Amino acid sequence: MTPDAMKAHLVAFFDEVWNRRDLTRLGRYIAPDYTIRSDPGDPWDGKTLTRAEFADRLRISCAPFPDQVFSIADLLAEGNRVVADWRWTGTHLADLPGFPASGRVIKTSGVTIYDFEDGLLRGHRQQTDRLSVYRQLAAKD
């Protein structure tokens, strides 16, 4: 897969799977086994997920922020990897442990390194600003 093809694949994955939550398209984008190699603070950190488990992860992750949207700020590709610099926003409409639904719009950003194999996403490493999410959730009106 060329660097441009990997970038296009990743952009479509964000749009169709994460933003539109079209789980019927998951097999088009990720490998049968997807490994989260490093994602501090993510309950799935260090785990290898089947496509069904990845779909569960997505449903659970999106539940408190049903309108969440990712936007891509930048992409870099080399070898079998694509680095995505992304922005995220979502409205806190359902409870999280310790944080009842607030109706606040929450924003954060992160950088994720995606690994490709045979034209599919095989896993990722990620750094995201979870502290800013916590601060926004804990803010007093």
Description:
With 141 residues, this protein is α+β, with helices and mostly antiparallel strands. The protein has one domain (3-138): Roll (Nuclear Transport Factor 2, Chain: A), CATH 3.10.450. It has helices spanning 3-19, 26-29, 51-62, 130-138; strands spanning 30-38, 48-50, 69-78, 81-91, 105-117, 120-128. Strand 3 (69-78) and strand 4 (81-91) form a beta hairpin. The N and C termini lie far apart (49 Å).
Radius of gyration, whole Å: 15 Å
Proportion of helical residues: 25-40%
Number of strands: 6
Strand residue content: 35-45%
Distance between the termini: 49 Å
Helix and strand arrangement:
Layout: H1 3-19, H2 26-29, E1 30-38, E2 48-50, H3 51-62, E3 69-78, E4 81-91, E5 105-117, E6 120-128, H4 130-138
At a glance:
This protein is α+β, with helices and mostly antiparallel strands and 141 residues long. The protein has 4 helices and 6 strands; from the N terminus they run H-H-E-E-H-E-E-E-E-H.
Describe this protein with a few key phrases:
141 residues; 4 helices; six-stranded mixed β-sheet; alpha+beta; 39% strand; globular; Nuclear Transport Factor 2, Chain: A
